[in-house]
Amino acid sequence: MNTDLIIKLLKEEDLYLEDTIGNNPLEFSYLSFSSLDIAKNTLFVCKGNNFKEEYLLDAIKKGAICYLAQASYISSKANIPYILVKDITKAMALVAKKFYEFSRPLTLIGVTGTKGKTTTINFIHDILSTACTTNIPYISTIDYYTGKSRGTSHNTTPESLYIYRFLKEASESNKDYFVMEVSSQAYKMQRIYGLNFDYGIFLNIAPDHISSLEHKDFKEYLNAKLGFLKQCKTVLLYALTDHFDYLYNELIKSGVKVYTFGSERSDFKLINIKSEEDGSSFDLVYQNKTYSFKINIEGDFNCLNAMAACSLALLLNIPYEDIKRAILNTFVSGRMNVYKNFICPVVVDYAHNKLSAEALFKTLKKDYPNRNLKVVFGCPGDKAFNRREELATLSGLYASYVYITMEDPQSKNVYDICEDIVSYLKPYNKPYEVIIDRKKAIIKALENAQEDDIIAIIGKGDEDYQLINNQYVPYESDVKVVEKYLEEKVGSL
Question: Which of 49, 54, 290, 359 has the fewest CB atoms in 10 Å of its CB?
Fold first, then answer.
């Protein structure tokens, strides 16, 4: 690809400002925004609030021949041509879409919501993989798979450059579907700019991700979700979500085909939810036909996640038997993992905001009514400050004992975060401990377990890192800490 084509695209989108290419267009064969990922003849994208000129200089040394930026770097060492743009995130998405262009079509499916995205993605992935008899590509909060590559995720939705690269790999691997989680930040930060989704699923919404680093208020958060849905041809919309009427009407006005799910009056009706010894079951009614399903994951909210996936599958004309078999075998590490081979049940779950934590606590109180709930949790440092009060309040209402610990303090002092949580918990007069080391906090909770307890360890799930001083520091993961402890104490799981 050459720079003339890039400049033409940028001008068509009214993103172009100026360039120093001259009359001889440059041919580039690689695209990157990271100085750690440079090849010969790279077009380098200078993006990010914390971008430093030294990153550009490093990229030049390694093979960058041109850079794309919102401002020029006039250092004598940064002596390669540049293209300046009005919006670097939009420009990167536009260039990546063209650079990673592919001819074989993919059915692109996106899932959004305040909670439940990862579990729903896993249900969809397993259904489609079963029906297609091949592993379907996906992007989740946990990891990704493209047909050619796989890896660990650090963002719910990666940067646009990676998304388009992954889509090309999936297409070249002869895959028919691509499933991905879509966060509100992905829309705000232009990570999904230029994408056209065939199907979108909206699970729920509640105030979250509101801070100086995320969304300024709930209205912006809600409209970011809506912005993604407007990029979809067809949307499955949860009928009982807050702000349903607003979302539904706006989508209809935008020409999006909308199906509803989750209530007895929806296009896809959810009835007969039951807790089972080893999971849950529910019935789905569509076009006057009833489909019965069972999942091996506890919780009414997981029935709803499964139901969203099953509804999509029926729209895609996936055979009922394939759907039924697939979701029965779906397991998501770190999402409602219940260990019953201990003195009391132990639950590890990713619940990290008010909506997910409240749903979890209500489920545990309903399914284990005579047990004392003990909770282990923390809160992040640089975002979602409301979680400190909300999770402390929920713990005060539902828990009999609380262990407050570290959870991705980022640039903030973890002691200050914990003390902030304590200040919101104290009015409820519930006993608590602050144990900064997360592994030690989990082990302490397990060591103090009684037969009439149930322990919920929430917030991290199977994440194998802590974000400290804006660096990803290896962490064993809540799942591994629990499983290792139980294996040592009670034998193999």
Answer: 49
Range of the domain at 456: 337-488
For the chain, what's the residue count? Answer: 493
Confidence of residue 400 (pLDDT cuts 50, 70, 90): very high
What pLDDT digit, counting tens, does each position of 290-306 carry? 999 999 998 888 999 99
CA distance 78 to 72: 9
Q: What is the average pLDDT across 260-269? A: 94
pTM to 2 decimal places? 0.88
Q: CA 205 from chain center: how many Å?
A: 14
Query: In the numeric block, which tokens belong to residue 343?
Result: 């003195």
Q: What CATH number is attached to the domain comprising 476?
A: 3.90.190.20
Instruction: State the CB neighbour count (10 A cutoff) for residue 305.
Output: 32
Q: In this structure, are residues 388 and 420 in contact, taking their beta carbons and an 8 Å threshold?
A: yes
Q: Domain count for the chain, please give it.
A: 3
Q: Are strands 257-261 and 150-152 parallel, antiparallel or unpaired?
A: unpaired
What digits encode the pLDDT tens for the residues 51-81?
999 999 999 999 999 999 998 887 667 889 9
> Among 346, 340, 260, which Cα is nearest to 304's?
260
Alpha-carbon span 291 to 20, nearest angstrom: 62
Give the number of C-alpha atoms closer than 13 A to the C-alpha of residue 437, restricted to the C-beta side.
Answer: 6
